[in-house]
Amino acid sequence: MFSVYKKELQSFFYTPFAYVITALFMFLFTLMFNNALGNLDNPVLQFTFPDIFYNVIFFFIFLIPILTMRTFADERKFGTEVLLMTSPVSVIQIILGKYLANLTVFLFMIAGSAIYPIFTYLHGTLVMNQLICAYIGFFAWGAMFIAVGQLVSSFTENSIIAAVIGEIIMFVFLFIDDFSRTDFIMQYPKLQAFLYAFAAQPRFAYFSQGFIRLSDLVFFASAIIICLSWNYIAIERRRWKRG
Amino acid sequence: MITIEKLTKYYGSNRAVNNISFTINDNEILGFLGPNGAGKSTTMNMIAGYLPMTAGTVTIFGSDISKEPVAAKKNIGYLPEIPPVYPDMRVTEYLSFCAGLKRIRSSERSGEIERVMKLLKIEDVQHKLIKNLSKGYKQRVGFAQALLGNPKFLILDEPTVGLDPNQVIEVRNIIKDLKKEHSVIFSSHILSEVSAVCDRVVIINKGDIKAIDTIENLEKKLGGSLTLHIKVKGDRAKTSNIIELTDGVQEIASIDAEGNDFFAFAVKLKDGAGDDTKNKIMSELISHGIQISEIYTEKPDLEAVFVDMINKSDEKNGLLELLDEIEPVSAEADGESDNEEKKEGDE
Questions:
Q1: What is the per-residue pLDDT across B20-30, written as a single tens digit (0 to 9) for each?
Q2: ipTM of this predicted complex?
Q3: In this predicted model, what pLDDT tens digit does every residue of B99-149 receive, in sequence order?
Q4: Domains and CATH numbers, chain B
Q5: What is the Rg, in whole angstroms, of the alpha carbon atoms belonging to chain B?
Q6: Could you tell me which chain B residue has the CA closest to the CA of A83?
Q7: Residue B270 DSSP code
Q8: Distance (Å) from the C-alpha of residue B5 to the closest C-alpha of chain A?
Q9: How far is A7 from chain B (nearest CA, A)?
């Protein structure tokens, strides 16, 4: 598993990929940060990091599929899947190795954003518990969508298609919250509750308010486990089906 | 020893490999020969544990590939048809990754990588990105990967495709050397290659095994008569007379005039006739004062064996396929066929 992890990290960090995607994330985060600074005079809008994270998420969903699109699609495209499957490494180890590598790049990305809280700490006051909760929430949120993106990547050998489908799924997850509160859905309370249960955004909102709720952690953890298990099934299924 | 038993693969309803069984002995190079689309790569993918089989077993030094995949795969080095290389990696990075995958201890890794790079002569490109390498080099990098960790069993799917003639010879020599410590299965549609390298050959067509034997035996089996080529200076009629009257000669296949009284005879010998007949003809011709400038016997080449096998088996294949088509239909529609029989009886 470690060799797969290491190879994936190499493919991110020995190429400009990890740096470009981190720079893009930093750019988005900086925009939001500046925006929030600009609103300091406004008595209605608060300047808090959880708010910034909350806004970043909307743009961030474009980045996650780009991070994960190559995970399995490229292995198929270059015929290197054969190498992995015929080596004495189990499919589960391959999936976990790749997932951990994607998570590491994700950590690398959000680590960059820490300069702003540090900057704020030096020049003002920082609400530590809220900030930490927001980071945990953001990480859990990202970890779930990486699992989704990785799963989508195992469906196709075209990484662009993997990215586009990933974007669509992430949009659905983002807007299911608003959708479940439309008048139409409100007519059916059970359906509304069902849809709302899948919404990831309100769960992040709890984290950003400084709550760590077990139900939210369980939600993210089970979503990750389901996606990775499906990933395993998708790979095995294709081995049985294809030529 | 590697045992393949009743291996079958269906893609949907399309049968790619049909109930094939053979073994690969220790320190043996087995050639796997067949036209394109015969099921070679599918079979190799199944043996390597990449594709699951529809039915049958593959046992590699005692480990069943589907039941104990990790144990079985430890003994396998596999070079697929398309070398499985990552274009964005450097050669040493790639080999180091493969060594990790194959669980070679980190203390032994660099030595092992040096060894395979030296063997395949890719040291001069070791710091290059794989995407910048020529096809031949990529092929050799893929081959190097298969040799990492010195696995006892090597599966090589068309390893010489894309190499230049010098490299082909080098790679063939490497494969021959590998025989000392390894069992090798080696697929190709190039006949001369198989006859140059392999101990035994499995000929496969449309998913069925057509023959398993040594090359000599295959040649013998298929009308193994030799052809004698003689080039003489002298009387044409007299020479053909002498040749025709010698024991062991079946017929003169052709006579070509080559100017200045030179004639080239191609003589087909009877089965089992060989050096004796050649010597008799030589001494007869010399005693009649005919000068011989060239004389040699020629075996029927593997190309002929191969074409013969494929064509001959095509007829049989047709029948087998017919039978196969009939069986499932009759099994499904047993009731209907009974009715039909009754109707026929009524009529």
A1: 898 888 888 99
A2: 0.82
A3: 998 888 888 888 999 999 998 888 899 899 999 998 888 988 999 999 998
A4: 2-220 (3.40.50.300), 227-298 (3.30.70.1320), 308-346 (no CATH)
A5: 27
A6: B84
A7: P
A8: 19
A9: 6
